[in-house]
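Here is a typical protein record:
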Amino acid sequence: MRTMVPKLLSGVLVLAVLLSAGLAGASDAQYKDAAKKWVETEFQPSTLSKAEQMKEMAWFTKAAAPFRGMEIKVVSETIPTHEYESKVLAKAFYEITGIKVTHDLIQEGDVIEKLQIQMQSGENVFDAYVNDSDLIGTHYRYGHVVNLTDWMAGEGKDVTLPTLDIDDFMGKSFTTGPDGKLYQMPDQQFANLYWFRYDWFNRADFKKAFKAKYGYELGVPVNWSAYEDIAEFFSEDVREIDGKAIYGHMDYGKKAPDLGWRFTDAWLSMAGAGDKGIPNGKPVDEWGIRVDGCRPVGASVSRGGATNGPAAKYALRKYMDWLRKYAPPGALGMDFYQSLPSLAKGNVAQQIFWYTAFTASMVEEGTPVVNADGTPKWRMAPSPHGPYWEKGQKLGYQDCGSWTLMKSTPVDRRKAAWLFAQFCVAKTTSLKKAHVGLTPIRDSDIRDKSFTERAPKLGGLVEFYRSPARVAWTPTGTNVPDYPKLAQLWWQNIGEAVAGEVTVSTAMDNLAKEQDKILIRLERAGVQGECGPKMNPEKDEEYWLNKAGSPKAKLANEKPQGETVQYDDLIKAWREGRAN
C-alpha cells in the first residue's frame, strides 16, 4: 500500500507512521534515516567504517526500488543465527528497502522436504532457501537451482551487491560444483569438533592416575584409541566429582532423521573409511560412494564403494559400544535436540563429535561449565581419528547453510529474495551476526579485533577458524547425487542396528545395497546428465579390498596405542597458523 505522508511530519514521527502503514511509499531520505538508525544501534561491530556501511545500505535501498511493497517468503532451519535473521535482519531489511520478508524457521528435515516439493512440482513454495551445502551434488546434477556465478554476471547483475566479495567466504569451496560454478551462497557455518572439560583434564590427580593406568599423558586425544581410554577412565575410574556422577562420553541414539546426520556428517570419514582428498575423498568419499570422474559408480564394496567396508562397520560398532558403556543414562533414547543440554549440566568429560553451532549456549554465565569470570571450563579441539584414517583425508564435518535460489521462483521474487540473502551476509551486517550466532562465514570477520578480544571466552572457536586446520572439516561433497533420497536411508538402517534389531554388519550391508538401488534407478532414469550414476558391475569384494585406497581391508589391530596432545600446545600451533 502506498502512503501519503504530510510534509510537516519529520524525523522519528515519519518513521513511526511509515512502519505502521507500510514502507512502500517512503522517500529515499526516509530509507536513509532508517539505515542510519540500524548502522548506529545494531550493526556494530563491523569490518567496515560507518560511512562504508551507509554506502552499502544506500545501494540496497536503490536496488530494491523496483520491488518496494513486495512480500517474500524464505526458509531455514532453526538455529540462533537464523533466529537473528528472522527477528532482526528481516525487520531492518524492510525498513531500509520496503520489501517485507517472512523468514520461516523449521527443522532441517522439513527444509529439505519443502525443497523437494518445489523441485518436483515446479511450484514456488519459498522464494529462497537456506539449505546445507550437503546438497551441492544434488543441485549441480538436477539443474533446478540457479547457477549463481552466471546469475550474478547476467540476469541478477542489477541486484548483486558490488561489495559482496565472494572470495571472502570461508565456505566458498563447499558450494561450488564440479564445473567451477557457485550454486549456493554461504550464510552460516559450523564444524563438529571435539569438546572436553579442560579443568578436569588439567587436574594433577587425574593426570597422574591416567598415566599410571594407560602409560601416556591425559590430553586431547589424537586417535580413537585415546578417546576410548579417556571415556573408560572418567566413567569407570573417576566416576564421581564433588558428589556428582560423571561420564566419559556423550552421544544420542534415538531412531530419528538426526541419527542419520550423525553418520553422514562425516562419522565414517573420522574413522578413515574414505580416500584421501580435501574437501572430500576421491574416488571414494565419506559416504562410501565411489565416483569415476563425476559419475557415482557404487556404494557397496562389491562395486568399489566403502559404505559396508571394514572401516564403516568398525565405525558403527565403536559408536554403539561407547554409547552403551560410557554415556549418561537415557542417551540411547535421546535425539539430537534432546542431547544438547547434557554437556551444559557439567557431568560429561568429553564428546568426540560436538557442533560448534551451540557454542552460544555453552558460554552462558551461571551454567556449571562456565567460570565465575565468564571463561569456559571446557575447550574445543580437532576430533580424533580412527585407525583407518590417513594423513590427507578429511577429518570431520563442517555445516555450511547456504542461500539457494530456485529456477521455479519468478524472476522478480527471486531478485527480491536475492537482495535479502545478500543483506544477511553483507559486510555491514555479517560481523554482528557472527557474534550473535557464532557461525562465522567471512574470513575478514573471524580475524576482526572484536573476535580477538572475545576469543578467551569462546573455548578455541576463534583459533580454529583462524587456523589452516579449518579446511579439513568439510560438508558432504559432490559424490552424493541425490542427498534427500539417500540421506533417509542412513537413519533407518543404522537405527535398526542401534535398537538391536540387526547386527552391525547386516545394517551396513543393507545400507550399501539400498544406496546402490537408488543410484541404479537414477542411472536408468537418465535425469542427471553426464554426471549421473553409471554403476560398476559387481565383483568379489576381495578384488576391491586388495587394491590401494578405499575400500580398505580390515586391520589386524583396530586399537593401536592411544595418542594425545596437550591442548595448550595445540592452541599455540593454531595461533601461529599451523594445522597441528
In short: Confidence is low (pLDDT under 50) at residues 1-21. Residues 35 and 57 are 6 Å apart (CA to CA). The chain has three domains: 28-187+401-472, 195-249+326-392, 257-313+479-546.
